[in-house]
Specification:
Layout (H helix, E strand, L loop, with lengths): L10 E7 L4 E6 L3 E6 L5 E6 L4 E6 L5 E6 L4 E5 L2
Antiparallel strand pairs: 1-2, 2-3, 3-4, 5-6, 6-7
């Protein structure tokens, strides 16, 4: 089993972009994090101003939409 370590509060959403070999998650700690699926290595992180509440992947897994507690929607491109 692979562990994805980095959030400091509850994880509220997660998705696997298998075609890209990535896992994306969002948390009450105000962060969105991206890891490699195969070994759990961190790839990227984004720290917002409010907790990140939920996320969804686009059908091609190339874009992540993340909703935060203030009502903003953030779009992140996965490379």
């Amino acid at each position: 089993m692979t562990e994805f370590v980095g959030h400091r509060d509850r994880v509220l959403g997660a998705a696997v972009a298998a075609a890209r070999g990535l896992v994306v998650s969002c948390s009450s700690d105000r962060s969105v994090r991206v890891w490699r699926l195969d070994n759990g290595a961190p790839v990227a992180s984004l720290i917002g101003h409010t907790p990140m509440r939920t996320l969804r992947l686009s059908p091609d897994h190339g874009i992540v939409s993340v909703c935060d507690a203030s009502g903003w929607v953030h779009l992140l491109r996965l490379l």
